[in-house]
């Protein structure tokens, strides 16, 4: 986990981040007052960061030694609000992988009532350290 995501309070949802290559089993966040926008609901930028992080980790789980990844594009569809105190979970999975681009999807939900908060589709590039 990076310093930025740790600063936001985003954590691995379980001790095992990935249960198989190409999938991230989840990131978790408890919404605090610092995460809220002017309307008193979770800021969309926090949601986008959480979704980007979980998708990037799903891609990293399927890479070979010496490879890394970076986000090329991401579309987030906001489906509902979250409020202070809500426990949220994000999960992601690779949908298609080419030689240099990877398409992923992610969902952000409130597990207590299975409410969908946001959905994202992301394209990531595969980088080589060579």
UniProtKB/TrEMBL annotation:
NCBIfam families: unchar_dom_1 (TIGR00369). Residues 39-115 form the Thioesterase domain. The keyword Transcription regulation does not apply. Residues 17-26 have a biased composition (Basic and acidic residues). The keyword Signal does not apply. This is Thioesterase domain-containing protein. Residues 1-26 are annotated as: Disordered. Transmembrane segments: none annotated. Keywords: Hydrolase. InterPro entries: ACOT13, HotDog_dom_sf, PAAI_dom, Thioestr_dom. Belongs to the thioesterase PaaI family. It comes from Mobilicoccus caccae.
């Amino acid at each position: 986990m990076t310093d930025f995501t740790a600063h936001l309070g985003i954590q691995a949802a379980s001790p095992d981040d990935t249960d198989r290559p190409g999938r991230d089993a989840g990131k978790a966040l408890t919404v605090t007052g610092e995460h809220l926008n002017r309307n008193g609901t979770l800021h969309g930028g926090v949601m986008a960061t959480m979704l980007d992080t979980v998708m990037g980790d799903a891609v990293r789980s399927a890479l070979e030694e010496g490879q890394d990844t970076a986000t090329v594009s991401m579309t987030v569809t906001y489906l509902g609000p979250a409020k202070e105190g809500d426990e949220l979970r994000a999960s992601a999975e690779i949908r298609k992988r080419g030689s240099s681009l990877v398409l992923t999807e992610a969902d952000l939900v409130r597990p207590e009532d299975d409410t969908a908060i946001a959905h994202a589709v992301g394209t990531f590039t595969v980088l080589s350290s060579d």
